[in-house]
């Protein structure tokens, strides 16, 4: 997990909490993928369900942020995998978190970016 939680120009109750964000992401992934085995024909539906599930749960937090969610699903095949992301923004209000979820057949990498309104 990589995180940059944003900062101090918002009230305490408006800030993004790392544990809460991690939970939101993992809950959305578990809901969409659960114990499913990798199946190429389901990738589009699964990735849509993950990102839409994240956005729905994030909206329910009622925090003053815009969100961007990305999801990558990769079959476990023994091959290497690398992802990277970066941003340039106000570190006092904006942030990102990347969560890796996996089961026996696939990796799911979800990144959520948030930007204060």
Structure, described:
- The structure is a single chain.
- With 117 residues, this protein is α+β, with helices and mostly antiparallel strands.
- It has a single domain (2-116), classed as Ribosomal protein S3 C-terminal domain.
- Helices cover 29% and strands 28% of the residues.
- A 4-stranded antiparallel sheet has the order 1-3-4-2, with helices on one face.
- It starts with a strand and ends with a strand.
- The model has no long low-confidence stretch (mean pLDDT 91).
In short:
The chain is an alpha+beta fold and 117 residues long. It contains 2 helices and 4 strands. 23% of the residues are buried.
Number of helices: 2
Rg over C-alpha atoms, rounded to the nearest angstrom: 15 Å
Described by the principal axes of the CA atoms, the overall outline is elongated
CATH class: Alpha Beta
- Point out poorly predicted stretches: none
Mean pLDDT: 91
Quaternary status = single chain
Number of strands: 4
Question: Which key features would you list for this structure?
Answer:
single chain, 117 residues, alpha+beta, four-stranded antiparallel β-sheet, 2 helices, 4 strands, 29% helix
Topology:
Layout: E1 2-4, H1 18-33, H2 43-60, E2 65-75, E3 95-102, E4 106-116
Antiparallel strand pairs: 1-3, 2-4, 3-4
Helix pairs in contact: 1-2
Pfam family, one: Tctex-1
Protein name: Dynein light chain Tctex-type 1
GO molecular function: dynein intermediate chain binding
């Amino acid at each position: 997990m990589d995180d940059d939680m944003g900062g101090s120009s918002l009230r305490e109750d408006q800030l993004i909490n790392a544990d809460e964000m991690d939970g939101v992401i993992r809950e959305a992934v578990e809901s969409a993928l659960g114990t499913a085995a990798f199946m190429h024909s389901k990738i589009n539906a699964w990735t849509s369900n993950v990102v839409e599930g994240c956005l729905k749960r994030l909206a329910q937090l009622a925090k003053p942020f815009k969100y961007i969610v990305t999801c990558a699903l990769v079959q476990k095949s023994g091959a290497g995998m690398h992802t990277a992301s970066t941003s340039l923004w106000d570190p006092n209000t904006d942030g990102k978190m990347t969560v890796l979820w996996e089961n026996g057949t696939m990796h799911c990498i979800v990144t959520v970016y948030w930007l204060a309104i």
